Amino acid sequence: MNEEYLKKLQALKQQYIHSLPGILQQIQQGTDALASDDMSVADMDEYYRIVHSLIGSGATYGFSEVSDFSRSLENSIKDLADAPSDSREKIIRDIQAWCVLIGRAINTATGSDEE
Description:
The chain is an all-alpha fold. The protein contains 4 helices and no strands. Helix 1 (3-35) runs antiparallel to helix 2 (41-60).
């Protein structure tokens, strides 16, 4: 690979890293809305789309934990859609736990100490 191409790839990776805190905030807001049962169908679609996009982008830019934890969060969201009402609370706790792990992985990727 030539040097110019590598510079462009590095710039894309840096742009992605800088976008991660905002993405995390969106996921946390969605998780809070989900837990409070205050999420519309449109909001749920957007929440799912954001989580799903982290699966591919995390892997693309070399952040496997972001990708892996996002996949687990996505699976929990799918479980919630099909769950009986008596299982909902446990699945939401799982979703909240995955959100915390994604936050830690993002903080590692961005070099942030915040949680």
